[in-house]
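Thread: glycyl-adenosine-5'-phosphate complex, take 2
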Amino acid sequence: MPDAADAPAANDPELFDKVVNLCKRRGFVFPSAEIYGGFRSTYDYGPLGVLLLRNVKESWWRSMVQLRHDVVGLDAAILSPPAIWAASGHLASFTDPLVDCRNCNERFRFDKLKDHHVCPNCGARDSFTGARQFNLMFKTHAGPVENEGAVAYLRPETAQGMFVNFKNVLETSRKRPPFGIAQIGKSFRNEITPQNFVFRTREFEQMEMEYFVPPDEAERWYEYWCQERFQWYVDLGIPKDKLRLRAHDAEELSHYSSGTSDVEFLFPWGWDELEGIANRGDYDLTAHSTHSGERLDYFDPATGERYIPHVVEPAAGATRTAMAFLMAAYDEEEVAREGQGKGERRVVLRFHPRIAPYKVAVLPLSKNERLVPVSREVLGLLQPHFMCDYDETQAIGRRYRRQDELGTPYCVTIDFDTLDDRAVTVRDRDSMDQERIPLDDLVRYLEGKLTSSEAS
Ligand code: GAP
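Output below.
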């Protein structure tokens, strides 16, 4: 994995702390079980975070399912029997090399250590035990009896749910290769070293799609999905110079893959993975067919051929991607204080409108009771169309700053003139320009603004 040394000089080393602080301060992400001292490396998504995460997932679903005719959805169970993981190879080989430091007893993932001889916790030299393979799957028991027959696993990836349902989907959806099955959901891995906030956690969300193709078309579709998936991040506002597509070399390839490329983002610690696009061949369908005894192939009536489709898989992390959107959107700038002309520094999250948690904030100029009815009316007008915030306390300048930090693209201010002219002031997050818009035109105006940057 490339390290921070690969990062361009422009990379901001303080960005990580700034974003983590903002996440806590503004209600994006909280440490889990905080009142009990926290639960290591698990996080809860607060009022803003849950909107951000939903927008990431909905943007993925829109592009992968809604705007296509060749991909259908699935929501498979998280609890799963050992048979699935025996067939997929996870029971045997979904492992990381674990070492202990004999001096401080800390545990590490051997392949992620910067120096294989020095303990990063206590500095001891050559204090590591030999590496042993540690299986990352969470094991539990289904039902009241904790015996071998009741063993179940929390899925470590959503992918297998799509392979084991291949036949069901093929028979019910009227799709034929090339076609895909897409799924968004939680996955669980007992990571040895969870790290970097929500980047690597034990409980996380994935957005995966298995695209089933005729074997001789696999390479072409692999190239296609690499480009499509890279472009998705660009279209949603991540600058191109913070993204790259990196092909795995032979030693890095997973046991099932004949080709994998990662979409990588320039995190504050260097380039790291957002998504992997893999050419999985017929590994999965063949394995499940052999283990289950079910025929998992496709008969093409046009050619009279029967074959096991090959699979191209774009596999992304929703939680990790939400973090990348936060990092890419974060900006600070010197601005004139609105209405006063004095300089001040503002923090602004320049989210793409699709990703922004709130699209519009409705802000009465003051709490004066004469403004309440029309402010509620404006909120009621906008809520069916956009996710809105409503805030009537503090000076208007401070409320604008708060919305900047939440990444809200537009603020709508109701003032005393509104009572006479039935118009409001719309403030643009990025330019801070203000425009007076009649209430009758407001929804159409905002809709136009919020979708003007759409590629599709
Ligand atoms: N089905 C293939 C598969 O699961 P993966 O590269 O292991 O491939 C896909 O996972 C994506 O899931 C990764 O690119 C990453 O975004 C996300 N992911 C994997 N492990 C994660 C973890 N421990 N915490 C957060 N996200 C994770």
